[in-house]
Amino acid sequence: MANPASNNLTAKTFYTFFVNGFTALMVGSVMPFMIQDYKLSYTLAGIFLSLHSVGNLSASFIAVMAIRRFGRRMAIVYLSSLLAISYFGIAFTGNVALLYVLFFLTGVGRGSISNVDNAVINDVAVGKSSALNILHMFFAVGAFLTPILASFMTGSGHSWKILVLIGVGLSLSAVVTYFFMDIDIKTPKATEKTNAPNAVAYYKNLDFYAASLLLFFYLGVETTVNGWLVTYFKDTGIMSAQFAQTLLSLLWVVIIFGRLSTAYLSTKIKKETLILCNTIGASLFLAVLMTGSHFVLIALSIGLFGFFLAGIYPTTIATTGNIIKSSPSAMATILAFAGLGGILMPLITGIVSEHFGIASGMSLIVIAMCATLVCAFFIFFRGRKAARATTTK
Questions:
Q1: Can you state the percent helix, strand and coil of the chain, rounding each to 5?
Q2: pLDDT of 358-385, one tens digit each?
Q3: What is the distance between the alpha carbons of residues 214 and 228, in angstroms, rounded to a whole number?
Q4: DSSP string, 234-289
Q5: Angstrom distances, CA of residue 34 to CA of 6, 259, 274, 295, 354
Q6: Would you say 245 and 154 are in contact if contact means Cβ atoms under 8 Å apart?
Q7: What predicted TM-score, i.e. pTM, was given to this entire model?
Q8: Coil vs helix vs strand at 121
């Protein structure tokens, strides 16, 4: 029989990750209008997106230290409040120096939520990719709504700042939700004491590093698509910002179904096989997306790209479930690896776009997706080797 307390905790975690998804797509959806209103260059916009990712990376370590100091519940209450504070500031200042700080803080807030929510669900269902896929499905629901609302508001003549203020309100609701969550049952210190012999096992685990490297390239692709896709379509003249925002929503609504499908398939198919199949599909349709110019072809390719992209992140996290469970620092480490990709790709895209055009900058994500594919093959063959070794024992 299901544990009511566990179900309540899971539901609240799903809600806060929904909010995280909503705020994740805000900047990419409104970036063309920020560039216009605040007179930003491509390079500066790329720096802002990268600062968000720097904050996301920093959160992997800030959250661990805060949890040890305040406990998991109060630490995430404090850190998640940074989302509301920073996005409120972004809506009301064009001061570049202040925007540097605010974009960094958005990343700290979002990264802290990702760290805690993934850890909570992993605690509830160790290594089960179905639970993690459902968690990330809620992220996708939030991410889907943001471009739709942005398209409606900007298309109706309303300011992009209204969307940001809606995100501020949702972020505050997440802070309140965390305040009433019972997530201090197992603190990081207690876990370290209980599992002292295995606390640093992940440092010597090749599979852990393979998964981390895959997530490095994956998050570089996802962050660049989220942050630059609308600007790319608008500035190349392929379509208007409103159409591009609609396509970004299409990407995320397909991701919802992709994660549901992956959650089901993960009970039938080995995780390593799913990762490989999804990565092959995502690589293929990203290439079609970046080379196509016809609206129907672009819409079809972005939908299929999103479907295959959907399950890569949570399923990869699930392959390291037991390792993450054995050490409180392991989740922070794997998210840090992933965060580096999210930092570098948007920045490099902005710099290349400034000098060679945005089409050249966006073509770099195809290279990153190919690197993700190489990592997926490595994980797949490592999984087969481990299975054969188990069979022969």
A1: 85, 0, 15
A2: 889 998 999 999 999 999 999 999 888 8
A3: 21
A4: HHTTSS-HHHHHHHHHHHHHHHHHHHHHHHHHTTTS-HHHHHHHHHHHHHHHHHHH
A5: 42, 31, 38, 25, 17
A6: yes
A7: 0.72
A8: helix
